[in-house]
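Project outcomes to date are best conveyed with an example. Our students and postdoctoral researchers have been running inverse folding experiments weekly, and each run begins with a structure described purely in tokens. The record below, which covers 100 residues, was selected by the lab manager from last quarter's runs and is presented without edits.
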């Protein structure tokens, strides 16, 4: 796994308490970009088991509070597929450049 940016900062906004979305991307030899977001149910189960730090709100929203180093370590040791629903093809977003 290659770490693109070791530090990501978000300006806290009390009006919009949204966070980050983490996912996996691949670029094919044909130049197609495919992107998968982490599966919320898998992440929720990892928080329940204590594998990830975080909270689950009453509305079942998962808020991960693990540090970037903790996430990188877990992904490096357990593999990215543990975080993604690889059988859900609708959860894969694919983009291509327009042909000139």
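After processing, the design step wrote out the following sequence:
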């Amino acid at each position: 796994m290659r770490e693109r940016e070791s530090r990501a900062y978000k300006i806290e906004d009390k009006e919009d308490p949204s966070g980050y979305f983490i996912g996996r991307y691949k670029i094919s030899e044909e130049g197609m970009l495919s992107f998968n977001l982490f599966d919320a149910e898998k992440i929720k189960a990892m928080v329940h088991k204590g594998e990830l730090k975080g909270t689950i709100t009453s509305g079942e929203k998962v808020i991960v509070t693990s540090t970037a180093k903790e996430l990188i370590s877990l992904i490096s040791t357990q593999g990215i597929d543990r975080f993604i629903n690889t059988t859900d093809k609708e959860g894969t977003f694919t983009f291509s450049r327009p042909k000139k």
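The chain has one domain: 23-94. Residues 40 and 62 are 7 Å apart (CA to CA). The training component of this project remains on track.
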